[in-house]
Design goal:
By secondary structure, this protein is an alpha/beta fold. The chain has 2 domains: about 190 residues, Quinone Oxidoreductase, Chain A, domain 1 (Alpha-Beta Complex); about 140 residues, 3-Layer(aba) Sandwich (Rossmann fold), CATH 3.40.50. Helices cover about 25% and strands about 25% of the residues. The chain contains 11 helices and 18 strands. Strands 3, 5, 6, 9, 10, 17 and 18 form a 7-stranded mixed beta sheet that branches. It has a 6-stranded parallel beta sheet with strand order 13-12-11-14-15-16, sandwiched between helices. Strands 1-2-7-8-4 form a 5-stranded mixed beta sheet, with no helix packed on it. The radius of gyration is 20 Å and the shape is globular.
């Protein structure tokens, strides 16, 4: 057992509490990673608020970067001391979905026993297979990808979720073709990366829709050609005027029901909506099915950008090294683990693109 410091959720909606926990050694197929950085995603906040249930006490955090410091039996292709990005995508590699190139919806990722516990033996849940609001993690080898040491740890950490989710939703799930028009609803961390994905894929027009002008200005720095305030009356009509028609692809990157209710209004004939943002469990949206059927429109759910991490993350890291993918610009603030509750409150305030905890 290794003693580590971690930010623990002991009650939904309460501030996280710093504790010293026991971290067991990696078992078959697992590695230990000593973390350099972990970003704060809205999903971590929603989980800690109880939006999707789960066991407590728990350690959240799933956008992480670090170095391999221990290797369990049966691990292949990873070395001690290697820089890796740590994701929540744990895959068996053999189920029907994994064999079809869809590891984000692995049918048998396995839960197993959490590697975390308190000194008295009380189990502590390793949320989202990561538990990265901690100095070290033990994860399955399928969850990590080696990346160059030359990349800043903040940039590596962002590759674990927000970047691949936004870009992958447009490129993999949305199957965007060059010359198509895109609307991205929400210009937060995931939305900015959906915009980057549309730019990289060669979209003709990329319209960002958000509730604040500041975020629309930021969206243009990441590749949006136009911005529309969601608070305007019937913003979809303004988008139609900009595009001259309905959008080919609408990416909903926020978990807000009004955004989902309005999203189909932006679509043109044959358009498709990619559903990325996750509302709280039990929240319901409403659609008029006859319109979607008549106009041959579609809805596509996208989990983690439908990525294959060993394929997509190195591709994106190479784009970053060429200066074609913005990662450093996504970092709004750098915090210590002791400041995590302040960093979370700053994230909830809505202005941050990504706050990062540095160890």
């Amino acid at each position: 057992m290794t003693r580590i410091k971690a930010a623990v959720c002991t009650a939904f909606g309460a501030p996280l509490r710093l504790e010293e926990l026991e971290l067991r050694a990696p078992q078959t197929g697992e590695i230990e990673v000593t973390l350099d950085a972990v970003a704060i995603c809205h999903s971590d906040i929603h989980f800690a608020e109880g939006a999707w249930g789960g066991d407590l006490p728990a350690v959240y955090g799933h956008e992480a970067a670090g170095h391999v410091t221990a290797i369990g039996p049966g691990v292949k292709g990873l070395q001690d001391g290697q820089r890796v990005v740590v994701t929540l995508i744990k895959s068996c590699g053999t189920c029907t979905n994994c064999a079809s190139g869809k590891p984000t919806i692995c049918e048998a990722p396995g839960t197993g026993t959490s590697p975390l516990s308190r000194a008295d033996g009380t189990p502590v849940a390793q949320a989202m297979h990561c538990g990265a609001f901690a100095e070290r993690v033990v994860v399955d080898q399928s969850q990590v990808v080696p990346l160059p040491d030359a990349m800043p740890p903040e940039a590596v950490a962002l590759m674990a979720c927000g970047v691949i989710t936004g870009i992958g939703a447009v490129v993999n799930a949305g199957k965007l073709r060059a010359g198509e028009d895109v609307v991205v609803i929400g210009a937060g961390g995931v939305g900015l990366n959906a915009i980057q994905g549309a730019r990289i894929a060669g979209a003709r027009r990329i319209v960002a829709v958000d509730v604040t002008q500041d975020k629309l200005d930021t969206a243009k720095a990441f590749g949006a050609t136009d911005g529309v305030l969601a608070t305007d009356a019937a913003p979809w009509k303004q988008v139609m005027r900009i595009l001259g028609r309905g959008a080919d692809l609408v990416a909903v990157t926020v978990g807000a029901i009004p955004a989902y209710n309005h999203a189909p209004r932006y679509l043109g004939w044959g358009g498709r909506m990619v559903m990325i943002g996750m509302p709280h469990s039990g929240a319901m949206a409403e659609y008029e099915p006859v319109v979607l059927a008549y106009m041959a429109q579609g809805m596509i759910g996208s989990k983690m950008g439908d990525v294959v991490i060993r394929r997509d993350i190195p591709w994106l890291a190479d784009l970053y090294s060429q200066g074609r993918l913005k990662l450093d610009e996504l970092v709004s603030g750098r915090w210590s683990l002791e400041q995590i509750n302040d960093a979370i409150e700053d994230t909830k305030a809505g202005g941050a693109k990504r706050n990062v905890i540095l160890f």
